[in-house]
Amino acid sequence: MRWLPRPGLSGNPRVADIGGQNNLFPSPNLDKRYDLLSISELMDMKGGVLIGAGAGPFFDLGLNIELMPNIAFGPASDRELRNCTRYAKVLDDDSALCEGIGTSTGCALMCNLLGCDGETGSLLHIKVKGRRGKLNFTEAIQKGLADVYGDRLISLGGVFVARSGKLKMHVMPDFPGKPFKNRGEVEQWLRFFDMDAPMVCLTVLHSGDDKALGLRKEHTHCFGADDPEENRRGGHYHFDLDETMDTVEYEGWLNVAEILYKID
Fold first, then answer.
1. Which of 51, 70, 80, 183 is deepest in the core (most CB within 10 A)?
2. Residue 212: which residues within 8 A CB-CB, separation 6 or more?
3. Where do runs of H (alpha helix) occur along 119-199?
4. Has domain 14-262 been given CATH number 3.10.150.10?
């Protein structure tokens, strides 16, 4: 998995649900500022890998963004930070651009993370081609888990690649100047894009009853695989388009979390 800072996603797998969508609606709570390395301490990690999806560090970059956390730290990276995190932003012409974040390890508002030691090991390897029905890739995984395990809470995290097809994505623009009146206004505020595969997607998802923890059941952010400098794609994953449902192809590597953390 050459897009990650370590070759594996095994070793003490755990997931964290940080903040939440209530920090965006009805008004962004700009006091909700986080740091991935500080979060790792709350997750009882002394080093390893963190990947996932969240809102980016507006306080470092000067604007609201979609974040693809992707770091290795501590003994897993020879005690040096390997920061492969990317972010997607909306440009002045309403197009989207995805690029590396540099040195920042910040995030804000909401974030969903898989943490592990970054070792190679057994993972759930899922490979599919062609879609039948309305469920997207992550929803199909959730349904499969629910069909077998019912209400038992199961949490997964990892990476999948959309190898072919076209994906519906959104990118948050900068924060609005006034509170949202309703959820419909949030949808109108988001910028939606159709993006061609291949895309690399970092995901955290849950199936079953979360016992009123209020978990975000799925959160996935993607970036273009091997994009040229002038066409770097990325954003929040929604689904693949019907026009490519016969040819869409996904391949994923997911681990089952042993521990779940809920962090405010």
1. 51
2. none
3. 137-149, 183-189
4. no
Q: What is the CA radius of gyration of the chain?
A: 17
The size of the chain, in residues, is 264
- Are 254 and 126 contacting, i.e. CB atoms less than 8 angstroms apart? yes
Which are the contacts of 28, defined by CB distance < 8 A and separation ≥ 6? 64, 109, 175, 176
Q: Alpha-carbon distance 236 to 250, whole Å?
A: 16
Q: Any idea which residue has 């197009």 for tokens?
A: 95
What is residue 167's predicted lDDT score, i.e. its pLDDT? Answer: 98
Task: List, for residues 125-151, the tens digit of each pLDDT value.
Answer: 999 999 999 999 999 999 999 999 999
Residue type (1 letter), 157 = G
Domain range list for the chain: 14-262
Roughly how many angstroms between the first and final C-alpha of the chain, as a whole number? 31
Q: Which residues of the chain register pLDDT less than 50?
A: none
**Bridging pattern class, strands 106-116 and 14-19:** antiparallel
Q: Could you identify the residue written with the tokens 């990118």?
A: 171
Task: Quote the CA–CA distance of 191 and 193 in Å, as a whole number.
Answer: 7
